[in-house]
Each structure stands twice: as structure tokens, then as C-alpha cells.
């Protein structure tokens, strides 16, 4: 188990503190939002697509650790691996290459029940619908199907009342699988690295969200932009963060995830940082994000 993070660890700064904003209330840090109250019952789920067409921005890491943090606060969580690489499944210690049934079967074969595919993870309160390389064929097989954008929605609908949150880890594209995720979601969380080309890609992604909302899913909205892999030592990162906040305002989460070697270690371990290094800055950051999402009702 990791030792406790240093008090001045840069990962423990909020967005306002990183930007040096004086307009935000004092104490706008990770302890500003209290721990949520326990639930007397569960469901129906808020479905969240964790999405960005740019790879390597922390989508899978954020999905795993947000799910684990939500579960720590008594929320029942289902995570859905919608990337043929199966990184989410591997990151939760599930041997996805050995599975006979995955999300691919749910999308392609209506006779497969969702319960047949569900996997209990090592994380108490977190279930998984896994993926493997078979999923790479799904878009081609679905393209001529009637209601192809609703395939995932049909699979998740029967079990949505069991969970408080369903988190969908999207592949780094805006193809049919991602459209399926957006079509069945209540909101979108966009993990974003603070660099110029990532900022440019936000416009395309938000345009896709608008089109899906207009044509397929009127309840869909932008739940928030999550800044990941932030390096507060660089002027460029702070400039990009400032620009994102200027454009998107309070839709940028106060929680900022900074770079740390702990995250690659947890991937190898096959467990979230909240259990691998529970006192680390990264674990505290994802708990803060979970509190923020619960408090905002997102």
C-alpha cells in the first residue's frame, strides 16, 4: 500500500486553485463537497458515456477509478467496456480474452441475455460488461441493421434499475459504437488532456453530442469536462485549462486529475487506485470527482 500523499502534492489542487482564481470561494478544494448520504434504495441508473475521440486521454483510467469511488460512497455501479482493446476489462482484472460472452454478443445477438454477460469484479459494488477483440467486428455487422444506434440501449434497459450509475467506456472514435453509447446515455463526461490539439477536438465531439441529442436522444447533455494528466508546471497546460473554463464554464469539473506514476501501476495490478493506493493523491482526486458528480446530479 502506498504511503500517504504529501500535503502539498499538486494532484490535490482544484481547478480554481490551479488557475489561481480569486473569484471562487475559499476552500474550493477536494473537501468542499461533503461525503454523500447513503441511499435507502438503488436505481434507476444515471447512464454516463465517458467519451473522447482522441486516445490516451485517460478515459479508461477515469471510468475505472470513478466507478470504484462511487462504489465507496454506497452507489451500485455497472461499467461497460465498449472498446475492442478491452482495456477497461483488463484494468479490473478480468481475463477478457478468455470469455465466451462479451458486449459484442449483446449487440449482435438479441437472444443473449444481459445477465449472461455480467461479470462481478473485485471491486465491491461494481459490475462489468466486458469486451474483447470480437467487438471490432460489431460496427460492420450492425451497419445494415434497423435501429442500429439502439443496440446497446436495448441490452442495458432490462438491468438499469439495479444500478445507480452506468459508466460506458467508449472507444477513441466517433463511430457507431460511440453513437450507441451516446444514444443510451443521460450525459457525457469528456476526459481531456490539457494540450492544444485536444482542445481543437472538443468542438467535433460537442457537435456530435448535439446531433445525437437532436436526432436520437433528447435527454443527452454534456455532464462535464474532466481535465486529466495535468502538469501544473507548464504554462501551456494552464493556458489550455483557462481557455476550456472560459468556453465551457461550470461544465468543467472542479476536480483536476494530475499526472502520477500510480495510474500505470494500477493498470498492471488490475485494480483501481482507490484500493491499490487508497491514500494517494490520485485516489483522493477520483473520490472528489465522485462527490462532485453525485452532488451535481450528473
TrEMBL record:
PANTHER family: COBYRINIC ACID AC-DIAMIDE SYNTHASE, P-LOOP CONTAINING NUCLEOSIDE TRIPHOSPHATE HYDROLASE. Belongs to the ParA family. Pfam families: AAA_31. It comes from the Bacteria. May play a role in septum formation. This is AAA domain-containing protein. It comes from Dietzia timorensis. Residues 47-221 form the AAA domain.
Amino acid at each position: 500500500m502506498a504511503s500517504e500523499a504529501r500535503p502539498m502534492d499538486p494532484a490535490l489542487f482544484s481547478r480554481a486553485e490551479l488557475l489561481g482564481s480569486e473569484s471562487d470561494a475559499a476552500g474550493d478544494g477536494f473537501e468542499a463537497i461533503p461525503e454523500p448520504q447513503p441511499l435507502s434504495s438503488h436505481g434507476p441508473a444515471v447512464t454516463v458515456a465517458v467519451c473522447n475521440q482522441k486516445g490516451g486521454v485517460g478515459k479508461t483510467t477515469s471510468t475505472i477509478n470513478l466507478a470504484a469511488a462511487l462504489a465507496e460512497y454506497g452507489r451500485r455501479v455497472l461499467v461497460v467496456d465498449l472498446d475492442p482493446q478491452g482495456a477497461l476489462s483488463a484494468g479490473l482484472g478480468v481475463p477478457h480474452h478468455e470469455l465466451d460472452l462479451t458486449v459484442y454478443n449483446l449487440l449482435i445477438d438479441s437472444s443473449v441475455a444481459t445477465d449472461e454477460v455480467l461479470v462481478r469484479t473485485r471491486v465491491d459494488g461494481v459490475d462489468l460488461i466486458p469486451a474483447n477483440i470480437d467487438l471490432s467486428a460489431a460496427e460492420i455487422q450492425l451497419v445494415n441493421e434497423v435501429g442500429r444506434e439502439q443496440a446497446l440501449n436495448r441490452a442495458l434497459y432490462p438491468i438499469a434499475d439495479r444500478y445507480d450509475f452506468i459508466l460506458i467506456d467508449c472507444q477513441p472514435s466517433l463511430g457507431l459504437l460511440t453513437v450507441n453509447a451516446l444514444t443510451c446515455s443521460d450525459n457525457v463526461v469528456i476526459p481531456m488532456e490539457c494540450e492544444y490539439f485536444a482542445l481543437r477536438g472538443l468542438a467535433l465531439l460537442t457537435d456530435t453530442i448535439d446531433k445525437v441529442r437532436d436526432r436520437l436522444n433528447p435527454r443527452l447533455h454534456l455532464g462535464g469536462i474532466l481535465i486529466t494528466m495535468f502538469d501544473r508546471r507548464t504554462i501551456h497546460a494552464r493556458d489550455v485549462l483557462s481557455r476550456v473554463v472560459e468556453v465551457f464554464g461550470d461544465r468543467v469539473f472542479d476536480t483536476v486529475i494530475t499526472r502520477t506514476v500510480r495510474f500505470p501501476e494500477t493498470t498492471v495490478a488490475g485494480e483501481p487506485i482507490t484500493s491499490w493506493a487508497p491514500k494517494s493523491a490520485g485516489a483522493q482526486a477520483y473520490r472528489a470527482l465522485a462527490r462532485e458528480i453525485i452532488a451535481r446530479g450528473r
